[in-house]
Structure formats: structure tokens, C-alpha cells
Amino acid sequence: MKLKDQLKEIAKSHDSLFRRQLAKEDLARFERLREMALASKSLEAFVKDGLYAGWTQNDMRTHELKETIVPVLEAFYAVVRDSGDEEILQTAWAAFEVDRLNKLIHCL
Questions:
Q1: Residue 101: pLDDT over 70
Q2: Coil, helix or strand for 51?
Q3: How many CA atoms lie within 13 A of 76 on its CB side?
Q4: Distance CA 99, CA 104 (A)
Q5: Both ends of the chain: CA-CA distance in Å?
Q6: Please, what is the Cα angle at 89 between 88 and 93, to 5 degrees?
Q7: Please, what is the angle between helix 2-13 and helix 86-107, to 10°?
Q8: Which of 83, 92, 97 is nearest to 38 (CA)?
Q9: Do 103 and 61 contact (CB within 8 A), yes or no?
Q10: Which of 3, 7, 45, 70 has a Cα at 20 to 30 A from 98?
């Protein structure tokens, strides 16, 4: 998965300590999501569970990111189940990243 490789590179060598840590958390989250996607009986069940995969601390503010997380989860599920396009996942992830960083900046 291209996105996973990009996150590994960010986690290893990005200039920003914040971005490196976020990438490490995302990589761990992707492993959990992959297991969830393979075990899930449906896309709907996966999305419901995937919304509570630790996107924010204790998932207390995850609802604020729902609009951009759901497309990521849908694309991720499809890629893991071999029926999706990684480019769609990349596009959804890029939109999520912008949304997440904008909201995180407001939390500081």
C-alpha cells in the first residue's frame, strides 16, 4: 500500500517531530483497521467500528472529523478487501489530513 509506505517514510525522517509521531500513530491505526476490515462482515460495520479507532484522544473529538474519516474508511476497506483503488484512498487521506491538521491546530 503506497500510503503505508509514505507514512513509514514520514515516521522515519520528517523534519517535524509532531508529524513523525502522528505518522507512527497512523501506522499503528492502519494495522488495527486492516485486521478489522478483514474480520468485518460488512462495510457499514467496519465504518462504525473504524470511527472509534483512536483518531483523537479517547475518540472524544472524532465526530468533528467524521466527514473526512468516513471516505478514508470506505476506501481503506475496499483496498484491504482487494476491490478498491489506492488512488481513491490517497485522495481521501489527503482530504482527511488537511481537515485533521486544521482541527488539531485549533486545539493547541
A1: yes
A2: coil
A3: 29
A4: 9
A5: 32
A6: 120
A7: 40
A8: 83
A9: yes
A10: 45
Q: Helix or strand or coil: residue 88?
A: helix
As given in the structure block, the three cell numbers for residue 56 are 483523537
Please name the residues in contact with 6: beta carbons below 8 A apart, sequence gap of 6 or more: none
pTM: 0.91
Neighbours of 32 (CB within 10 A): 13
Is-contact 51 73, C-beta < 8 A?
yes
Q: What is the mean pLDDT of residues 62-87?
A: 94
Distance, C-alpha 91 to centroid of its chain: 12
Question: Which residue carries 473504524 as its cell?
Answer: 50
Residue 58 has pLDDT above 90, yes or no: no
Q: Which amino acid is at 52?
A: Y
8 Å CB contact between 75 and 84? yes
What letter does residue 85 receive in the DSSP assignment? -
